[in-house]
Design a protein that fits this description.
heterotrimer; A alpha/beta (about 425); B mainly alpha (about 300); C mainly alpha (about 280); A: about 425 residues; alpha/beta; D-Maltodextrin-Binding Protein, domain 2; six-stranded mixed β-sheet; 18 helices; 14 strands; globular; disordered N terminus; C: about 280 residues; mainly alpha; MetI-like fold; 2 domains; about 75% helix
């Protein structure tokens, strides 16, 4: 029997040995982000380094979770009792996490810091992140969607580029359609336009649909009423649909036409993506989104820094958040992430902050921030997006009836609103 | 059907005269099974019971707030949520497509490869290779191959003059694509089970039939097929149950889309529980899945018992 | 006449071989295309399709390691699979031996009880297991990836496989061992196990692959990149913005699949037989 016990103990010990968890040192803050870009991480680590001036033994570990899975992985960590101390979150997750009570109220901490200047953040930018006196996050990126274009492909087609068109006031949805078609014809095997990162039919439905819908004066939903089947939205989506299936000027579903490797002449993205341009190897520029019957209506994607309420070092995490979003560091981050601090936004430093983008084009970015509206979000965003997705799939067929498909979208979304 | 053994064999050896010895043997036996039994109770049976209780709550994964709601989640699934029946339908279509295709192909390949000939080892190795490959790798590669015009499958079809569909963007084609790639992945397993069974059939049976002038088809129909019946039953049930378990394949190839066309039960449970935080509802779905699979298992056991008699 | 029959046979055989070759295409082609695409650049991958890359980009295989801690992830998969295999071998052969050779009250009931678990998909228990693992404080560690397979339905399947094999073994040697005063454990270790090498090998092979290919559990329990296992890492080759990096993903997939395929080709017969054994039992 002794032998029996012994040989049972060995594997048990083996199992135990494997269970040992890596414990964090008390003064390490874990910070989840979705960027893996070396340039971004270097900047973030620089900010963490400067925090040591006031907190010598605090280190911050930035943990990259790929954007596609970001909210899901964060959910696993939060629900799994393994929350990071701080993290970035996207606008569509804000109401969900806010309502679930997993975000720390930063109001008292931030108001208690002299010279922080919470009021410097424009109220419109803070809309998603404050609830009365409570502050659930500080936006670090209030980044409008811009048109990125491939100058060489425009030249080849003998067309004026979007920036020039915008300067003349001719950059509207109709022009956008014409130009895309002409570009497709002039560049065989390539496309005029690609949705954001080629994911407009899958994970970035909102990024594909919202800019034209807003340009036409529509909206996703207002006051609990679905707006996808309003005439404005139908007209906007019909135009996109024509471009994909009639003109064949937008990269269609299931195809690859990567703008960054020269597969498409235009795409829509945020300026943080400019960091990818030097390696693209072609002349490029950014321009505002085309205007529509509803006038100019820039669309903004927002992301904020939050402190998680379950974290064990909440106070310290809040201090780091305050440090990271002080005026100096916001100005540093502005090279990639357009700020919500008015003092920084209005400074020359901002328009000159990005060495890849000319001051003229950065001015367009500032302009879009001033006029733009954040992408729609909702407490039940995950459910809404999941309810939308199958109906939007049905929309992206050559013979789809756009109005009917959008009615189906609304029928699916309405119960969630 | 390698070793149809029974418990009777072991009993004789264990004839022990003294009661104390017998008692001691029982203690030892329990000690022998205790590691696996303990783990099994903790990580399997406990959770299985728990999931039943979870299924009667409304429980948010993120807020961790739970409330007892009785049978509401079941009522939701069965009568209120149209997605549920859509998912059940998909799961049934998936099974109805996968099982016959898998078995027919497995049997055909087994018949071709059960006798030695030049190249038999090569072919067996080829048809079995996807079985040892990770489903994740398999799904990734096929997703890549099945892209619309840039995908290799459609490029090849274009050479033959066929304008292939946009496989993973059309609900019906996506379902077909998932089924077929899953069959290719798993058919090798059933193939070798059939080969093993075929090799136990004495050659004399076939020779005798042939002497009587039976054709190949008649030999298969009258001799081989009846003798394969037990194997066929087992393979059928295993494959059917396996078809309900498919998660990674769907997760990576289609994510349940397009138009929810490939949203099957296993994936739906994951989505409800971990994406929409509905722990209670997801648990009710899990219970439903458990019952369905359990019924199939019992059917299998009954068939096996019948087969042993 | 004989000649014609022979000719027909040869013709028949050629027809069969050709049809088999055709059927084999979708089984082989994905592997070839995967490996060849792993050598292509991001642009070539969607250019003119060709099985031979225009430029062999060996640096893809370097970038795979720069993009993620891929070596670490590879090691994770390897050591987890080995641990699961070792523990499964010990526990399943112990329990299988008791169920085959020892008589004890409740054995029949226990069998039935374990059998009932055989077919329950892990999706059914994943939610309570999520809370159990959380409660045990093992979130984002490798422990659940070892514990759940060892003690879940797979472990039970291994137990039955071992039991069936022990039942078919001749008992004489064990009886002799008993005469020599060996304890039960001694008989199990010195006599029964050495005689069951084929079954142990089968359990080891199947268990290793089972663990190696596990996806749902790592997906739910792991969140740190450096703890990821291979299947999770493979599904993770999108750039920071969610764009698929096909060339890197396929290079990484090749790295994950080719060694297993290599071992499979070498030990093909043994591996196939192992599955035949388990499939019949399972």
């Amino acid at each position: 029997m002794k032998a029996a016990r012994k040989s049972l103990v060995v594997p048990a010990l083996m199992a135990l040995g494997m269970m040992t968890t890596t414990s964090l040192s008390a003064e390490e803050l874990r910070f989840t982000v979705w960027t893996g870009s070396d340039a971004h991480l270097a900047m973030l680590n620089g900010i963490a380094e400067s925090f040591k001036e006031t907190h010598p033994d605090v280190t911050v570990r930035f943990e990259t979770i790929p954007a596609a899975d970001y909210t899901q992985k964060l959910t696993f960590q939060l629900a799994g009792g393994n929350p990071p101390d701080l993290g970035w979150i996207m606008e569509d997750a804000a109401p969900t996490f806010g309502a679930a009570g997993v975000l720390m109220d930063l109001g008292p901490a931030l108001r208690g810091i002299e010279g922080y200047g919470l009021e410097d953040f424009s109220p419109s930018a803070m809309g998603l992140w404050v609830d009365g006196e409570k502050v659930y996050g500080i936006p670090f990126s209030t980044s409008p969607f811009m048109i990125f274009y491939n100058k060489a492909m425009f030249d080849k087609a003998g067309l004026e580029d979007p920036l020039a068109l915008a300067a003349k006031g001719e950059w509207d949805m109709d022009k956008f359609q014409q130009v895309s078609k002409a570009l497709t014809e002039a560049n065989p095997g390539k496309w005029g336009f690609e949705f954001k990162d080629g994911q407009g039919y899958d994970s970035r439905i909102m990024h594909a649909l919202m800019p034209p819908i807003r340009a036409y004066g529509g909206n996703a939903w207002t006051n609990g009423e679905c707006g996808f089947d309003d005439p404005e939205a139908v007209a906007a989506v019909q135009q996109l649909h024509n471009m994909v299936f009639k003109d064949k000027s937008i990269v269609p579903p299931g195809e690859q036409g990567d703008y960054f490797s020269g597969g498409s002449a235009m795409t829509i993205n945020q300026i943080s993506r400019a960091s990818k341009m030097p390696e693209a190897g072609f002349e490029w520029g950014i321009a505002p989104l085309p205007s529509g019957p509803g006038g100019e209506s820039p669309v903004i994607g927002q992301a904020a820094i939050v402190v998680f309420d379950q974290g064990k070092q909440k106070e310290l995490a809040a201090e780091f958040l305050a440090h990271m979003t002080n005026e100096e560091n916001v100005a540093t981050m502005a090279q990639f992430f357009p700020p919500a601090r008015q003092s920084v936004l209005n400074s020359d430093a901002f328009t000159q902050s990005n060495e890849l983008i000319s001051a003229e084009q950065m001015a367009r970015v500032s302009d879009a921030i001033a006029k733009g509206k954040v992408l729609p979000s909702h407490e039940r965003s995950p459910q809404i997006l999941a309810a939308m997705a199958p109906r939007v799939d049905a929309l992206w067929k050559p013979d789809a009836d756009v109005a009917k498909a959008l009615e189906a979208v609304c029928a699916a979304v309405q119960p969630q609103l | 059907m390698a070793v149809p053994a029974t418990d009777k064999n072991s009993a004789r050896f264990l004839r022990v005269p003294r009661l104390a010895l017998k008692h001691r043997e029982a203690v030892e036996a329990w000690l022998f099974v205790s590691p696996i039994l303990t783990g099994f109770l903790i990580f399997f049976l406990g959770p299985l019971i728990a999931v039943f209780f979870y299924s009667m709550t409304e429980w948010n994964l993120l807020t961790q707030q739970a409330a007892f709601v009785g049978m509401e989640n079941y009522a939701d699934a069965l009568s209120r949520n149209p997605d549920f029946w859509h998912v059940v339908r998909n799961s049934l279509i998936f099974a109805a497509g996968l099982v016959p295709l898998n078995m027919a192909l497995a049997l055909t390949l087994a018949l071709a490869l059960s006798r030695p000939f030049f190249g038999v080892v090569f072919f067996r190795a080829v048809f079995f290779a996807p079985v040892v490959t990770s489903a994740v790798a398999w799904a990734i590669v096929w997703k890549f191959l099945l892209q619309n015009e840039a995908g290799a499958v459609n490029q090849i079809l274009a050479v033959v003059g066929i304008d292939g569909p946009n496989w993973l963007r059309e609900p019906d084609w996506a379902m077909a694509a998932v089924i077929v790639t899953r069959v290719i992945k798993m058919v090798g397993l059933n193939m070798i089970l059939y080969i093993a069974a075929l090799q136990t059939i004495p050659r004399d049976y076939e020779e005798a039939a042939r002497l009587e002038g039976a054709s190949n088809w008649q030999i298969f129909r009258m001799v081989i097929w009846p003798l394969l019946a037990p194997t066929t039953l087992i393979i059928m049930v295993i494959t059917t149950i396996g078809s309900f378990k498919v998660f990674d394949h769907i997760y990576l190839m289609t994510g349940g889309g397009p138009e929810n066309g490939t949203l099957v039960l296993a994936f739906y449970i994951y989505e409800q529980g971990f994406k929409f935080f509905n722990v209670g509802y997801a648990s009710a779905l899990a219970m439903i899945m458990f019952v369905v699979v359990m019924v199939l298992t019992i059917v299998q056991l009954m068939l096996r018992r019948k087969d042993m008699q | 006449m004989t000649l014609t029959v022979r000719q027909i046979r040869t013709l028949n055989r050629i027809c069969w071989t050709i049809s088999l070759l055709v059927v084999a295409i979708p089984f082989v082609f994905p592997f070839l295309w995967m490996i060849s695409s792993g050598f292509k650049s991001a642009t070539e991958i969607f250019g003119q399709p060709s099985l031979i890359p225009r430029v062999w980009r060996w640096q893809n295989f370097v970038e795979v390691f720069e993009y993620q801690p891929f070596a670490r992830q590879y090691f994770n998969s390897l050591y987890i699979a080995l641990a699961v295999t070792a523990l499964t071998l010990v526990f399943s052969s112990l329990a299988g031996y008791a169920l085959a050779r020892m008589r004890f009250a409740g054995a029949g009931l226990l069998m039935l009880f374990l059998i009932s678990a055989l077919m329950v998909p892990e999706e059914v228990t994943i939610i309570p297991n999520f809370f159990l693992i959380r409660w045990m404080g093992l979130m984002d560690t490798h422990s659940p990836l070892i514990l759940l397979p060892v003690f879940g339905p797979h472990g039970v399947m291994a137990t039955f496989l071992m039991r069936q094999y022990f039942l078919a073994l001749p008992k004489e040697l064990e009886e002799a061992g008993k005469m020599d005063g060996l304890s039960r454990l001694g008989i199990w270790w010195r006599i029964a196990l050495p005689m069951s090498r084929p079954a142990l090998a089968a359990v080891a092979i199947i268990t290793f692959l089972f663990s190696w290919n596990l996806f749902l559990e790592p997906l739910v329990f792991l969140s740190s990149l450096e703890l990821f296992t291979l299947p999770l890492a493979l599904s993770n080759f999108t750039d920071a913005y969610g764009l698929p990096l096909w060339h890197l993903q396929l290079a990484a997939t090749s790295l994950a699949v080719v060694p297993i395929l290599g071992v499979y080709l070498i030990a093909q017969r043994q591996i196939i037989e192992s599955f035949a054994l388990s499939g019949v039992k399972g």
